[in-house]
């Protein structure tokens, strides 16, 4: 049985050969694997591309929603809104927690994509 790393490496080799125009039969012969394995790897690669595209779409939408929400809060100027002390504490805690979560997400993004920070 292949390890996950070996399987991933094989999938990459299969996809590269397919991208160069090799037929499943040619790929199977070159990599010394069955044609069924080639077909399975190509399907797995297609499924991964589809999942990544969906994930990118969801992430773009969620980031945009966060930006819109942050702008809405800024526009409302919650610090200038009259509220009792308990409500003010709750709003402050909620805003602080959200800011920390967004800051952590931005830091993780910058770690993964260092080119984004300059």
Topology:
Elements: H1 4-19, H2 24-31, H3 35-76, H4 85-112
The portion of residues assigned to helices is over 70%
Number of helices: 4
Q: What structural class results from the helix and strand content?
A: mainly alpha
Give the number of DSSP strands.
0
| Strand composition percent | under 5%
Distance between the termini: 44 Å
Question: What are the segments in which pLDDT stays under 50 over at least 5 consecutive residues?
Answer: none
> What is the mean predicted local confidence, pLDDT?
90
Largest sheet: none
Cα gyration radius (Å): 24 Å
Q: Which overall shape is indicated by the principal axes computed on the Cα atoms?
A: rod-shaped
- Number of structurally distinct domains: 2
SSE order: HHHH
Briefly, what is this?
80% of the residues lie in helices and 0% in strands. It is mostly helical and 118 residues long.
Question: What features would you describe in this structure?
Answer:
It is a single chain. The chain is mainly α and 118 residues long. It folds into 2 domains: 1-59; 77-118. Helices cover 80% and strands 0% of the residues. The chain has 4 helices and no strands. The chain has helices spanning 4-19, 24-31, 35-76, 85-112. The longest helix has 42 residues, at 35-76. The radius of gyration is 24 Å and the shape is rod-shaped. The two termini are 44 Å apart. The mean pLDDT is 90.
